[in-house]
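Page 47, continued from p. 46.
Same chain as before, 355 aa.
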Amino acid sequence: MRWTDLRTGFGCNHACRFCDQAVLRGEHGDASLAEVSAALSALPHREGVVLAGGEVTLRPELLQLVGAARALGFQRVAIQTNGSILASPGAAAGLRAAGLTDVALALHAPTAAVHDWLTSRPGSFKRALAAAKRSVAAGLGLRVNTVLTRTSAPLLPDTVGLAGALGARSVRALVAREAGAATADARMLVPRWELLPEPLRAAAEQARLVGVELEVVGLPPCLAPDLRALLGDRRDVAQPDRAFALEAPPSPAPIWPTPCGRCTLRPMCPGVDAAYVARWGTDELRPAGPQLQPPSEAVLHIVDADTSRTLRQRLVKLHGEGVRRLRFAGERSDSEMQGLLRECERLGIVASTGP
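Result:
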């Protein structure tokens, strides 16, 4: 089934700490009923469409929009929602009667403490669970969307298990990005890529046990090539069709930094987040293919978050990869830099600093 996410506006009743739309909410309103209807008519296929926000259930004309999509011939019509309105008695059944077929529900953790902290709305976890149960009872297909933050990523296996218990058919996990609301607290919210493969493998096993399809968006596939099916093996899986019913700025374009080179996984890679690379560098990337052996010379980019211990661990790793000449790029105290140079000398790496 080919799905298109149709963004109808940015209005929302939650204030998620990771929301990449937060800065857009005050600059762009919601599209009108006529604008959304026109956008629906302009979509190039009639398979599946996801009406998304913001929080699309806040729109008073949502029943009309669902009916209009079905009248245009869409085989399946879904809404993307935080569940706050759908938890109300009769809401799911009313949408089902109007022609809705599926619900993509935001469930960001398996506990109220973490979910409610991430949404900044006490009680949102309880309402999300009620929305899931009412949706399934109404005969709607349930899918779960979850955002992986530093706090919630280790809990993904339990989130998948909960989704399965609620009757969800699939879980779509999106790695939090340094954008929108997350920009101010990126160090606390955005997970380090290299720490994700382990919980993803556990989540994949849990998904197999409970019969849920799991998809992960936003992790470069080179970090976990054994999870290719999980990460998607086509760019259109990682970057589904998107359309806007209103004029809105495009998302930042992904990049392929220098280490990506001629990586054999590029055909399935959607690119990497430029903001992440700017903050953390590219040392976590693991380009695939025999033609991509690390060069004998390299640059080690030092960022503020690096500790002396992590820098020494990276030096050992570079040495093991065959690097014999190294240049440090970044600021460190004179004493710490001298310690790093001594470590290079011990490893047999000729090192220098500066441009």
